[in-house]
Amino acid sequence: MTNKQTLTLPVLGMTCANCAATVERNARKVDGVSEAAVNFGTEKLTVSFDPRRATPQQVIERVERAGYRVPLAELELPITGMTCANCAATVERTLNKKVPGVVQATVNYATERASVTVIPGVAGRAELAAALERAGYGVLAGDDSAGPTALDAEQAAREAEINRQKRQLWVGAFFTALIMWLTHKRILLLLTAQGINAIDQWVYDPWLNVILWVLATPVLLVTGRDYFSGAWKSLRNRTANMDTLVALGAGVAYSYSAVVTVTFSGAPTFFETSAAIITLIKIGKLLEARAKGRAGAAIRKLAGMQVQTAHVLRNGVEVDVPIEQVKVGDTLLVKAGEKIPVDGVVTGGFSAVDESLLTGESLPVEKNVGDELFGATLNTHGRLNMEASRVGRDTALARIVRLVEQAQGSKAPIQATADRIAAVFVPAVLLLALLTFGLWLAAGAGFTAALIRLVAVLVIACPCALGLATPTAIVVGMGRGANLGILFKNSAALEQAHRLDTLVLDKTGTLTRGEFAVTAMNNEQLAMSNEQLTMNKGNHAPEMLEFLRLAASAERGSEHPLGQALVRAAQAASLPLSEPARFEALAGRGVSAVVDGRSVLVGSLRLLQERQVALNGLLERGVRMQEQTQSVLWLAVDGQTRAVFGLSDTLREGSAEAVAKMQAQGLQVVMLTGDNAATAAAIARAVNIAQVQADVLPGEKSAVVQRLQSEGHRVGVAGDGINDAPALAQADVGIAVGSGADVALEAADVTLVGSDLRGVPKAIALSRATMRVIRQNLFWAFAYNVLLIPIAAGALALVPGAPVYLQQLHPILAALAMAFSSVMVVSNSLRLRKVRL
After folding, report:
1. What angle do CA 785, 788, 790 make, to 5 degrees?
2. Active-site positions?
3. Angle of CA points 179, 184, 186, to nearest 5°
4. Which of 509, 485, 486 is nearest to 497 (CA)?
5. What's the pLDDT at 714?
6. What is the pLDDT of residues 671-696, one digit of tens each?
7. Cβ-Cβ contacts under 8 Å for 335 (sequence gap 6 or more)
8. pLDDT tens-digit profile of 791-817?
9. What is the pLDDT of residues 247-284, one digit of tens each?
């Protein structure tokens, strides 16, 4: 069995898709790392590794050796329970070896404190404290020196990086403005004072070149520092990236101008060009960073919803404690208007809870004793007592955030083409720039004209737009989905969903509520009154109640909704149930058991026919009950059919609307159910589904999906994620509906956290909108480079009548275009936040 762990690391310093590829390549070089994928949009690296052969620290060291930075968080923990140096060593070993995400931990026995370096978002104070408690030690509560949370540390590192770049930009903007003013002021003065013919004698005056050189130098050394260091890093890694192009473009213009100034050759200088290139691209990068920050805002908002403190009842006294100190089994108090602190179960009180944060459903859900609660949801009114069942990284909210972040870190198949092009893009541009320079020089255009075109080609090429086209759209799309309670397992699922042409819907629990009630017995209507089960006609009530008791006793070991309905009916009638012996669940047929020494079968007509049980004249009654759209369960006792129960289910609110929306999206909708044909047809008519497959066993559902796929259909399956697991796994896209906050993503590609079927067409619409934006982004990225690189190379100089500024594109205009090309891609992706679904 493979012992594989997945780790997501924030990485700073990446400027283009080539940087992302470099990080991936270096991470894979660590022995034990099987997979490494970078999402350039979120600037995160996801690695899968064998913890027996690799550690997070080794991955971090490898990434940092490649020239990039992984922000880390420092935590200080006051430890209790240490009695000797061996204890300190045990604590240190526990933290270093037993807690994923710990980079380094050192323990000072004298001060009884542990200094721990952790990876943001992977390990925090709660995980460290839990590991130490399992080892027999404790962490003191209420310590203010615990430091920021991992999420805070990552955010602080990113903000510090942006602020540093802002300071660099101000330096560049100040000196570039002076350079541009001097350059253009000189030309204006000469034009007005001495006439246009005198320009050639004044424009290249040596003392002005020296001043421009002095002013341009801080721009390259301060504002352009990242580009030159990035180019050096890429050279060390034997690759080339956006930094290479910018550094070469600005460096060539600056170096040539410096040589001209020193040699007093009288040739034109391009100090203003080198400074403007650096400053304009820095502006574009800052705008891009801000837009990328907005792209991931949805998930950060979810992660930030965690409650900071909780009211814990200890020895009957209410105590406010930090959320990290809440343990499983603690009794908590939640007042009206407060958020639920952690996941748990109501032990006292009544209220309505707004769960829209997780499910996207706006109506509050009533909560009584025994009902489940989820952390960060809002208690709208009333006072609740609850017992904590999941805390820290195990809460529904934490798991959803983690799952979405992992999904955002995966790569969509459509990105493969962009990655392949990005891998050769920069070397190709370098070659093209040299070719451009050589051709124009050979054509007699002169050294200056050839140099301008070389610089323009280097600067205008934009690998960033290619690198951002797919991941930014994926990040925004998945974030929008998470806010609506739609969770995609990975980017491939998000992409695949837009291709679906057929959607197979499970009936019970998906189209319907899956909450059955016993409404008839032997075709005689049942009614509940004062907890007494009565029949509207017939003289065999006592006998019928005994049959109900036997059937319910047999079904006590079953989890099937129909069987549970029998149990509820018997309990409501105060019937004493017995423990079944030799219980056996028969998939798709029913159950068999021995109750009070009697052999009992409860299930479908097929089950009785297979066991050759005499029907005793009840077949006609069962058929009539099916015609009345009731689900039917047959009871056989000691080889004789004794009763047939009618059970009714109701449609979920919004099911008909959801089906209508799917059909409006051009999807062929098929209903699949193990129920009888009459009941299935009645439900299908209610929601306007024409194609129905009834009497299908769980194992046969996947075969139906397979048949549809063999006919050339791309099939999605929406089911409850439990009984429908084989069909969900077989489908091109499996959609688990109504799995609640347990987020059962094992079999499904998409999970709807709520039970509203209208989330299915929303998921399809979101997938289509995301893919539409990705195609637009890729078109823009390709079109930009395909059209503007030839223009920068001087292709329009061969076209009579073309504008002069396009015949020889100035590098400053090239830098301006490059600076805003990636901003355009990210801004287009951000439109997904507002798209109508």
Report:
1. 100
2. 506
3. 95
4. 486
5. 93
6. 988 777 777 888 888 899 999 988 88
7. 311, 379, 383
8. 999 888 888 888 888 888 888 888 888
9. 888 889 899 889 888 887 767 788 888 898 898 888 87
Q: What's the pLDDT at 723? A: 63
Question: How many CB atoms neighbour CB 124 within 10 A?
Answer: 25
Give residue 231's identity as a one-letter amino acid code.
A
The pLDDT value given to residue 764: 94
d(CA 602, CA 547): 11
Pairing of strands 733-737, 715-719: parallel
466 versus 176: the higher-pLDDT residue is 176
For the chain, give the mean pLDDT: 82
Of 293, 167, 165, 177, give the one whose Cα is nearest residue 230.
Answer: 165
pLDDT of 406 over the 80 cut: no
Q: How far apart are CA 457 and CA 249, in angstroms?
A: 8
CA distance 836 to 299: 19
How far apart are alpha carbons 815 and 794 in whole angstroms?
16
Tokens for 660, please give them: 């209508």
Report helix angle 125-134 to 85-98, nearest 10: 130
DSSP secondary structure of 717-745: EEE-SSTTHHHHHHSSEEEEES-GGG--T
Of 626, 598, 625, 601, the closest CA to residue 612 belongs to 601
Q: Is 482 helix (H, G, I), strand (E, B) or coil?
A: helix
Place of tokens 């050096």: 232
Strand bridging mode 590-595 / 581-586:
antiparallel
The two three-digit tokens of residue 443, written as one number: 């054509």
DSSP string over 233-295: HHHHTT---HHHHHHHHHHHHHHHHHHHHHHT------HHHHHHHHHHHHHHHHHHHHHHHHH
pLDDT at 305: 78
Q: For residue 481, which of 541, 407, 427, 547 has the smallest C-alpha distance?
A: 407
DSSP H helices, 311-462, are 356-359, 396-409, 415-442, 447-460
Contact 343, 395 (CB under 8 A): yes
Position of tokens 């991941």?
471
Helices and strands in the chain, H and E counts = 28, 31
Instruction: Give the type of residue at 11.
Output: V
pLDDT class of 523 with cuts at 50, 70, 90: low
d(CA 318, CA 313): 5
pLDDT at 745 over 50: no
Distance CA 640, CA 642 (A): 6
| Structural contact between residues 41 and 102, judged by C-beta atoms closer than 8 angstroms | no
Query: Which residues does 348 contact at the CB level (< 8 Å), separation at least 6?
Result: 369, 384, 385
Q: If you average pLDDT over residues 296-310, what whole number do you get?
A: 76
**What local confidence, expressed as pLDDT, does residue 133 receive?**
84
Cβ atoms of 5 and 100 closer than 8 Å:
yes
Cα atoms in the 13 Å half-sphere on the side-chain side of 713: 22
Helix axes 415-442, 242-263, angle to 10 degrees: 20
**Residue 808 in tokens:** 């020889």
Q: What is the pLDDT of residue 14?
A: 86
Would you state the pLDDT for residue 537?
42
Please tell me the pTM assigned to this model.
0.72
Contact 498, 764 (CB under 8 A): yes
Overall residue count recorded for the chain in this entry:
837
The whole-number average pLDDT for the span 389-416 is: 79
Mean pLDDT on 316-335: 87
- The answer to whether the beta carbons of residues 42 and 409 sit under 8 Å apart is yes
Q: Which amino acid is at 326?
A: V
Pinpoint the alpha helices (H) of 487-633: 491-497, 541-555, 561-572, 605-610, 619-627
Return the closest-CA partner of residue 563 out of 619, 596, 616, 607.
Answer: 607
User: 667 or 531: which carries more pLDDT confidence?
Assistant: 667
> What six digits make up the tokens of 221?
């050394």
